[in-house]
Amino acid sequence: MKNMKIYLGIGVAVVAGFFLVAADHIDAPAVAGGTSDITDFYAFQGQNTDNLVFVANVQGLISPANTSDAAFDENVLIEFNIDTDQDNIEDLVIQAIPRNGKMYFFGPSAPSTTVLNSTILIENAKGSVDISQYGESAIIENANQMKFFAGPRDDPFFMDFARYGDIIAGNETEFANPGSDTFAGSNVMSIVVEVPKNLVGSTGTINTWVESKRKQ
Known about the structure:
InterPro entries: DUF4331 (IPR025566). The chain contains three helices and twelve strands, in the order E-H-E-E-E-H-E-E-E-E-E-E-H-E-E. By secondary structure, it is mainly beta.
């Protein structure tokens, strides 16, 4: 699970240009290397400054040779959680789940259950998008003031794990500039949703995190 805090403001200048990220390419043993393994969570202001963009990347370290065969797991729900009252419990969720070559999106709306369990909010379906194929143009759909994408992307996260290991071992004191990107040339499966701020809280502060949940 990845989480972060975002400040929303009436003045665009206050929030313009923020970019927040949580990443973990070496996850818990129960999900590491599996189809529910979250590698990155990004949240940032859209090109349209009235919007927020949420990005969840799963299934990290996919080689280009294997990307054409990579697929979203139809038994795994990706859920973007949004806390609007600072109690660290989700008040709104955006859900994404794949079916037959499409990614379906639900919310943002109040969840029927919170924390560990989720129920797909069928009554709050907001749109779908064909899952883009590796090597082909990205497919983006617009519906209900929102934008949607799902498909393989180059891993955007930069980390020099070799240098990090040297620092931890006490052999180096800082990262090299430029460093060596451990994830260069690897891909992820990405889910992107852009949503108007007024649907998630137009001012103040929100906490946001992403979870993957497997069908039981």
